[in-house]
Each structure stands twice: as C-alpha cells, then as structure tokens.
Design goal:
The structure holds two protein chains of two kinds. Chain A is α/β, with parallel strands linked by helices. Chain A contains nine helices and 26 strands. The chains are: A alpha/beta, B alpha/beta.
C-alpha cells in the first residue's frame, strides 16, 4: 500500500474513569488477549502499510511495553517498520503535545522522510477490522483532499459523544460538529483519515504557525469548504473504547460467535504480543458458561457470561457473572462478583461480594486488594 | 563468526516408533504435549532460560512439522543475528556421498563444521524427547568447578529398574569410572539422561577418533567409554526433578493426564521458568452456555459447547453441543461432532470426528496388528483423519486417514481393530 500510517494513541478519556488512570485508552485490554491498539496496528500491517508511527503521550509505559518488539505485527524490518514517538524537548519546542495536530507536527520529520504519497491516520482506541486500501481507493477515485472514514449509526443510538458529519449526496462533507448537543445526523466520524502526505505537511505548517493544534477543529472543520473532504462509509463492526460502557460492550461482544470468530479465526488476523501462558485449567467443581477464558487462568468456581483475561485465578465456590476480569486477578473462595470490570491484578480475599448494576458496571482499579 | 562460550546440539531426528500412529508423519519431538506445547518446546525453553542462545537442531525423521514449528526461533527468542537456532539436516558431502545420522555421536560428527564456526569452549548435547525443566547453566557451573572434560546428567532411579537404563558407575563424589548400557547386575542407580556437556576440544578429538572405529558412533556406547579410556575427567551431575520420557502411548497419555491434577508434579504455571511455544494462537477459549467442565486443560482458541472431563485440549479445538469427552487428549484444530462420546482416546491434530460417534466402547482387547503398542485401552486417531457420523469404535483401535461409513462393518470397529490408509490414498 502506498501509504504510511500514524496511530494517535496519546489520548485519555475522562469517561473511562479509573480504567485509564494507569494507562492510555489505546492500551486498554480487550477480548481476553488483545490491547485496543492491536486492532488499528494489525489493520495497518494487514493493509500492507510497512511504515507505522504510534504517537503516545499519556501514561505511555504499558503501551511502550506492549509495542516493545514490532515483530508480532510483522513490522520487524530495517526499511520502515514500527516507530513509537513520545513528546521530546528541543531548542524550538518544549511543549507536550498541545493537540492531535500538534502531536503529528512535532513528529513532522517522520512525514518528511517518507516517500509514500499517502498517510492513513487512525486513533488507537477502537475495535474493528478494516482494509484501509479500500478507503484509499475511494480517496483516489473521488479525488478527495481528505477522506474521513464514517459510520452510519442506527437511529436509536445516542451519538452525542461523536463527531457528527453532514454530507451532500456525493458524500462530500458539508458540516462537522464535535459532540453536538443536538446531532443533525447519525453519521459519525471514526477518527480514521486519509490524505496526501505533502498536503498534510503543508496544512500542519500553516496551522501551527497560527497556534492551532487540533486536527478536527483546525483542519477538518476549518478547511471543510476550502478542501474537498469526503466521507468513506464503513459498514462493518466498529466499536470505540472511549467510555466505561463502550469498553464493557467491546469486551462482551467477544461472547458473540460472529464477532469473536471474525477477530480471532478469520483472515486477515489481528495480532498481539504473545504472553506464553500455559493452557487454561478447570479444576473439578468449576463451571464456565458463555465465557471466554484467557490462557494461564485457573478456574475453581463458577463463571457465567463473562470475559476472563489471562492468568486469572478463581477460588472454590466463587461466582462471577456478567463481568470483565483482567489479567492476573485473584478471586478468593466464596466470592460473588456481578456486573464488575476488574482491572489488572486485583485481589479479592475469601467471601467478598462485589455487585455493580447491569447499566453501570462497578470498576475495581488496578492492583486493588479487597 | 563470533565465538560462543557454549552452544547446544539438540537431537530431534528420532521417530519414537512406540508412539505408533502419532509419529507417522512427524518426529517425536514435534508431537503435541500438554495442550499447546510440543515435546521439543521443553529443551528449547530450557536452553534460552539457561542462557544458551545458540542451538543446532538435528532433524532426520519426518522433519516438516518440526521445521515449521521452530521456524527462525521467534517463540524462544532464538532469532538472533549471531547464533540463534539452526536446523541441521543430513546432507550430501563430496567425499562420502552423504549419509544419514546413524548414531547420536555420528550426528554431531557430521556437523563438526557448524560447531567449528562458533569455536565454543563447551558443547551441550540434548535430546528432543523428554519433558523436564532444567537449568543447564547450573550443570555448566558444576562442569567448570570439577574441571571436567565431560559431564553427564543422571537421574537416580530405583535400583530394581536400573537394568533398563544406561548406568554411570561413579567413585569419589560422582566421578565416573565406567558406563554400562542396561547392565544385568547394576552397580549404581545413576541413569544417564542423554544430556551431556563436553569440552569442545576433547569432544571433537573423540568424535574424529571414534569415526574410524564405529560407523554408528553413539555417546553412551562409544564416546563416553573412549574418553574414560583416555583418562579424561568425567563427572555425573545429579538431577532430582521431574523428567519424563513419553515414549509409549500409555506413558504419553499418563503424563498428559497428570497435568490435569489440581497440584500436578510438573508445573506449567511457574513465572520464573516459562515454557515457550509457537504463538500462532493467542485468542482465549470460549465455553458455551451448555458447556460442562470437569478437570481439564483447555488451550487457546477452543470452542467448547459440550462437556469435558479429565481431558487435555490443544489449540483451536471445537467440541460441539452434546459431545462428551472423558479421559482423552484432543490435539490442535480437531472438530468433534454433536452428541459424540469419546472415552480414553488420543486424537492427533487436524482430525474430525462426526456426530453421534462412540469411541472407547468395548472390551480391552490389544490391537491385532501392533499388540505391543496399543494394549492399555487407549484408542488412537491419527492426524488429518476423518471419522464419519454414527460409527462406534472400541478400545485399542487405530484409525488413520479419511474414513467413510463404508469402511466400518455395521458402523462398528471392534476393540483392537485398525483402519489405516496409506498416504497416497489420502492425497
């Protein structure tokens, strides 16, 4: 594919609550074995993008750990490969990233030193499987300056939290509103953009001089009339990870056979960093119904309709229902857990009860000992 | 080439014929074990965990699966620009027309050039046939401390069983003075594990010298006695942990079953001695709304809709609704049909069993063709095999190939029966 990729993984979402206190939203564990960034990263690699930059800023340790070797995404190579950028100080610039556009601008050398004519920009916190080549073909066919991958949401879905696009009959962007109070359409932006590399460099040079730093506000919205901004409608599965609810749903969707198999069994494959855990073990007296269980877990109790990550231990007579239990959690004997998102390495001593509500799962922060 | 202090030579060419149909299309080290692993993963993981980063893997019998599994060594961090893993296959040479590896030491002799490249101080000889966790760096420390020319890892076995092993007779604190292969009246109970550390200089000399005497040069039979004759310093290094040769169908089955226990003798779950294997399957296992789980090991990517008791499932196995699996090993990528009942059975990779099948039902009659391999009630279904809907299969049966209903008389294969298609038919 004649494009380079940039994944914006620096952001945090205040709607994620305590889940992103210790990590970027892009590093959120999803589906029993993945992290959110595995999806855009695998998509780029699978689309044939051979040079990818991941731009991080907030709580980047776990993300850097995850990306420490590029070979899992078939990006271990001398030409191109995987780059991770964090803000760095220089003579000219001592700022953190002041916005999405600034985060690209501060790494402009990466863009300038590339030869591919196009750039694919994606955010790191969404679960989906997409061939960006299709979007690029659409971009070329429509002679667009900027292409935004858009998704038409069902009428009953609340779209207040998204960027809302109004399009003309040809799919050209007329208006774009971030998180509107009164959405004028149900077409949302997925935060995936395609444009010519040279145009991006030119636009960034212009807006940064004007002290404008946001990609959506200062490029998409500001230039929507001057440039030809087109929508590429995507109708496959796409689930953002930007709130407690959407995070919970993204995990629970893996209990659906069609979605689970699309991500875990079907070509092209979503890759992740392997963890080398042994098979999951079910001891006598355990049960697991409508559950996914990661490797290295040891199950002694009962589990229903839940997502259990790797290396989780559940004690005898414990009962877990409708919950997401992340890697390395320990649930003691006779515990009761329902409607809970348990972050990594939580320890529940014997006999504890944690009950959230079905609409608003209870969050237990990373490493909590109850 | 840059020098290495130590490199390992891993003998992985053996067939393991007592594993029957399980080694029909792959060498014994490539046979699955413990769900997601293959037997060779244990010595390979031991190497990297012990700091041995240069490993030559000697293949001979049916190497394809082994080659694919090892690849460039990524799972074991053995993909290196200096050292790493190298597959060493028998090859033609100008002077000799080439030859097969005819003995353990002969196989090393034929790869002198590989070892010479790194000019190591020590060479570690391993076999790819055993399940164990061992820190070779401690053995190397022992080798250096005793100023040995060769160190042989030994296991203390019960005296009454010693006549089944190669026995090291020692004096003065484990200094070896004699090696006896399967002695009738054993003098010691220190059984050789087939794991050696040699000083490369002395080993090279002995290999070259023995070459002209024995065509099928073997470490236990020839090289160790030769070194003793030359008055080299040989020590036995005692190893006192789990070590299993899963050489027979019964011992293979039992070693897998042992892992299911709540506190097994062999612990796969230790963080400080990780076991590495092909990372192709990362996704979690799914258990359906009607699944029932007894004691079992379930690997990545499995879909369990039926019931599993006392069994080990490899990666990506599908168990459909109503199926009941008991006391069995089902290796990677198998599919088990609805309402099928399987008892005491080993099913090799990529096989499918139809619906309403019963396996393991009948009397315990040894297999008619190979009674000494299949005689403990375990039915074995080979790789890439198809068992059609609705058939009933007894104990100690062997099935290999894409079978159809017409291959079963009255939909039944009695205990001890065999259905085996040649590979040509399968293709």
């Amino acid at each position: 594919m004649r494009a380079i990729g940039m994944i914006l993984a620096g952001g945090n979402s205040n709607r994620m609550g305590d889940l992103t206190l210790k990590r970027a939203a892009s590093a959120m564990p999803v589906g029993g074995c993945y992290r959110s960034i595995d999806f855009p990263l695998s998509n780029m690699s699978n689309s044939g993008i051979r040079k990818i930059a991941v731009v991080t800023q907030f709580n980047s340790r776990s993300l850097h750990d995850h990306l420490s070797s590029p070979k899992w995404w078939n990006l271990g190579q001398k030409q191109g490969g995987l780059f991770t950028f964090t803000p760095s100080q220089s003579h000219e610039n001592s700022f953190w990233y002041r916005g999405t556009a600034d985060s690209i601008y501060q790494n402009l050398t990466f863009l300038k030193r590339s030869n591919e004519p196009y750039v694919v920009i994606a955010s790191g916190n969404a679960v989906y499987k997409m061939d960006y080549q299709d979007a690029l073909n659409h971009h070329i066919d429509t002679e667009a300056d900027i292409t935004i991958v858009a998704k038409e949401m069902p009428q009953d879905v609340d779209v207040h939290d998204f960027g809302i696009m109004e399009l003309d009959e040809n799919g050209r962007l007329l208006e774009f509103e971030e998180k509107p109070l009164e959405p004028q359409s149900n077409i949302i932006s997925t935060g995936i953009y395609i444009m010519q590399r040279v145009l991006l460099i030119k636009l960034l040079d212009t807006i940064i001089k004007e002290a404008r730093y946001d990609f959506v506000k200062d490029i998409v919205i500001r230039y929507r009339k001057k440039l030809k901004v087109m929508a590429y409608k995507y109708d496959g599965y796409w689930q953002p990870v930007n709130s407690v609810r959407s995070y919970f749903d993204a995990n629970m969707d893996f209990l659906r056979k069609d979605i689970r198999e699309m991500f875990t069994k079907e070509f092209p494959y979503i890759e992740t960093k392997p963890k080398d855990e042994p098979p999951a073990k079910y001891n006598p007296g355990s049960s697991a119904q409508d559950v996914i269980i990661g490797s290295g877990s040891i199950i002694n109790g009962a589990i229903q309709h839940s997502v259990i990550f790797r290396r989780v231990f559940t004690g005898e007579q414990s009962f877990i229902k409708n919950s997401v239990i992340m890697e390395g959690c320990f649930v003691g004997n006779n515990c009761m857990v329902e409607n809970v998102i348990m972050d990594k390495e939580v320890v529940l001593s014997d006999g504890k009860r944690l009950i959230g509500s079905p609409d608003n799962p209870m969050i237990v922060s990373k490493g909590t000992v109850v | 080439m840059r020098r290495k202090e130590i490199l390992a030579m891993l003998l992985a060419g053996g067939q393991g014929s007592r594993l029957g149909v399980l080694t029909k299309t792959k060498a014994k080290p490539a046979v699955s074990f413990g769900g997601k692993y293959r037997i060779i993963d244990f010595p390979m993981s031991n190497c990297i965990n012990s700091g041995v980063d240069t490993v030559g893997v000697l293949t001979q019998y049916q190497p394809l699966q082994l080659n694919r599994h090892i690849g460039i060594g990524i799972p074991w961090d053995l993909d290196r620009s200096n050292g790493g893993v190298t597959i060493l296959a028998p090859h033609l040479k100008e002077s000799t027309d080439g030859e097969w590896y005819s003995g353990t030491a002969n196989a090393i002799f034929q790869n002198l050039d590989y070892i010479n490249q790194y000019n190591p101080k020590y060479v570690l000889i391993l076999s790819g046939d055993h399940i164990y966790k061992m820190d070779y760096s401690k053995m190397l420390d022992f080798h250096k401390a005793n100023k040995c020319d060769a160190t042989i890892a030994v296991l203390e076995v019960p005296m009454e069983e010693a006549s089944r092993f190669g026995i090291m007779n020692t004096e003065n604190g484990d200094k070896v003075y004699q090696f006896e292969e399967k002695p009738q009246n054993p003098k010691s109970n220190l059984a050789s594990m087939g794991i050696y550390i040699f000083n490369w200089e002395q080993l090279r000399e002995a290999l070259i010298e023995d070459r002209s005497i024995h065509e099928n040069s073997d470490f236990g039979m020839h090289i160790i006695p030769l070194m003793l004759k030359k008055n080299y310093t040989l020590y036995a290094y005692r190893f006192a942990d789990y070590w299993k040769d899963v050489g027979t169908v019964e011992s293979y089955w039992a070693a897998n079953m042992e892992l299911i226990k709540t506190l097994p003798e062999f612990n796969l779950y230790e963080d400080f001695w990780k076991l590495y294997t092909d990372g192709e399957h990362q996704s979690p296992a799914y258990t359906g709304p009607n699944a029932q789980m007894g004691a079992c090991l379930i690997s990545n990517g499995c879909e369990v809709l039926g019931s599993i008791f006392n069994s080990v499932l490899g990666p990506n196995v599908i168990i459909n609704e109503g199926a009941v699996i008991k006391d069995s090993i089902i290796m990677g990528n198998c599919v088990i049909g609805e309402n099928t009942i399987i008892d005491r059975c080993i099913i090799d990779e990529h096989s499918s069993v139809g619906r309403d099948v019963v396996i393991g039902d009948g009397e315990n009659i040894p297999n008619e063709l190979k009674p000494n391999i299949y005689d403990t009630g375990i039915t074995v279904i080979g790789e890439n095999t198809v068992v059609p809907d609705g058939v009933s299969i007894g104990k100690n049966c062997v099935i290999y190939g894409k079978t159809e209903s017409s291959d079963y008389q009255d939909s039944r294969l009695d205990s001890g029966g065999t259905i085996m298609f040649d590979e040509e038919v399968i293709l």
